[in-house]
Amino acid sequence: MRRSSLHLVAACAAALLAGCTNLGPDYEEPDVAWLAEWETDLYGQALTKAPDKEQDLSFWWKAFNDPVLNELIEVARKENPSLRIAGLAVLESKALLGIATGAQYPQVQRANGSWARVDRWPTEGDDSGNHSDLNTYDVGFDVGWEADFWGRYRRGIESADAAFFASITNQQNAQVLLAAQVADAYYAYRTTARQIQIAQENADLQLRSLEITTRLFKSGQSAELDVQQARTQYLATLSTIPDLEIALKQIENALCVLLGRSPGDLPEIASVPATLPELNPLFIDAFPANLLLRRPDVRTAAWSVAAQSAQIGVAKADLYPSITLFGTIGWSGSSVNGTDSTLSTGVGPAFTWNLFNYDRIENNVRVQDARLQQVIEGYQLTVLAAASEVDSAAISVVKTRGQQTLLAEALEAAERSLSLSTKRYQEGYSDFQRVLTAQQSRAARSASYVANQGAHISSVISFYRALGGGWQPATNEDLVPESIRQIMAERTDWDGMLEEPVPLPKP
Q1: Exposed, middle or buried by CB within 10 Å (0-12, 13-18, 19+), for 130?
Q2: 328 lies in which domain range?
Q3: DSSP code of 276?
Q4: Is there a single domain that holds both residue 65 and residue 202?
Q5: Same domain as 139, residue 232
């Protein structure tokens, strides 16, 4: 009889599985209608057409040919706390995927047992005076499996799987941001150091003018006004240096944070030159629209849509009955004489159906649908922002590069004007005002030239970041260093998950 019951349960299970379906929508990546024909006008102008100079976007910073920059980015990839947090989030998502996967197996797997001592005492009116006691005990095991008839658990796994891949692409995006931040901070440091150097050079020139006017004044060949004007300009230039030094220290500290170091611990930049590099033109043989859709943040947004889409199916499953196959076995007994212990078993199907919670469940489906539309709109916004970043970076690259020639010529002219005006003043053919004007012009032109150099480098870095460059497939070591994984393994049994290879999400 028991065997026939088991056969019946097995037959029911087979029938249920054969009719299983997945409720809710199947995921389709949102369409971006305008993207197929979009290309920023200045994208091509930001690049050179030399195919032999094509850059590897994964390691775009190597195009700067700066060993110090290469070293700093490598250190940041190993030590940056934000990147580690993104890597730990991948491990968290992996564990959550394991929870979702485990939910499809028997949901009830429970052993239970109890023991009790029962004492009986006579009460008022009971003249027997007898006290009795007995022991009762029982032990059992219950198992229950809810057939995934409506796809509740399959959709849950689908959602958790998409969230897992979203965490991986989010870590990739953290790599993109980190490389750009390190490069930007590094060249901001060098730009500011160059500005300090330029300010000191201008101050030295103005000091020589002050010395000349002082000497001429003492010899009676010049008025005191010239001396005071020269002194004013010299001191004014010196007064700009402390602000630049403050900015330099702040940039240094920001760079230390990116490297996961304490403030001031930055020996790598102690000997870097104050000059700024001349960058080679870029060549990227790819349509910007294609690059946009491969950006890690865009992929993260797409995986988020997939994760939420599956949640609609999870919510809809609550509208239908839950069919469970259960089994139980138990043993019980007592210490009462003449009482036999008993062994009992039970097996069969059961169902539950929240018939009277329909409105609550239906509204939860609507909640999940509204959330889906929110993440779809978030995806569209991410793509729009990505396109805007590419367009803004492209125009910045083009225009700052075009400014360099003009500013270089203007600086050359200002230096020539300063030289001529100083000579004519010393020879007595011109007043000192022309020297002051030439000094001011030279200082302004030199500052503008350096600022433009820094702005151009920053725009190139932004261009690479906007195209989604700067990430590589992560290994376990990239996600979390071995030292931290050992600490986590000692604290918690990860069952080998810390060493499992990191999958590469589909593009």
Answers
A1: exposed
A2: 1-30+108-118+132-147+323-353
A3: -
A4: yes
A5: no
Statement: residue 349 has pLDDT above 90: no
What is this structure's pTM?
0.85
Best CA proximity match to 401, nearest among 38, 47, 24 = 47
Instruction: Tell me, yes or no, whether 347 and 306 share the same domain.
Output: no
Residues 212 and 226 in one domain: yes
Q: Tell whether 314 and 344 lie within a shared domain.
A: no
- Co-location of 332 and 229 in the same domain: no
In a domain, 44, yes or no: yes
- Domain assignment of residue 506, yes or no: no
Q: Supply φ then ψ for residue 94, to 5 degrees.
A: -65, -45
Q: Can you list the pairs that 38-43 forms with residues at least 24 positions away whose Cβ atoms lie under 8 Å?
A: 38/288, 38/289, 38/387, 39/287, 39/288, 39/289, 40/288, 40/387, 40/390, 40/391, 40/394, 40/395, 42/391, 42/394, 42/395, 42/397, 42/398, 43/288, 43/390, 43/391, 43/394
Q: What are the helix (H) ranges across 259-321?
A: 288-293, 296-317
Average pLDDT over residues 40-53: 62
Most confident of 140-154, 205-219, 311-325, 419-433: 311-325
Helices 432-466 and 358-426, axial angle in degrees (round to 10): 150
Q: Is 243 in the same domain as 348?
A: no
pLDDT(310) > 70: yes
Q: For the chain, how many residues are written? A: 507
**Is there a single domain that holds both residue 230 and residue 302?**
yes
Contact 91, 502 (CB under 8 A): no
Total Cβ atoms within 10 A of residue 43:
23
Confidence of residue 281 (pLDDT cuts 50, 70, 90): low
Does 362 reside within a domain?
no
Q: What is the pLDDT of residues 103-154, one digit of tens each?
A: 888 778 888 888 887 777 766 665 655 666 778 888 888 888 788 788 888 8
Contact call for residues 281 and 49 (beta carbons, < 8 A):
no
Per-residue confidence (pLDDT) for residue 304, from 0 to 100:
96
- Here the CATH number for the domain that contains residue 338 is 3.30.1300
CB contact at 8 A, 50 and 284: no
Select the more confidently predicted residue: 457 or 436: 457
Q: What is the pLDDT of residue 285?
A: 63
Query: Which domain CATH number covers 286?
Result: 1.20.1600.10
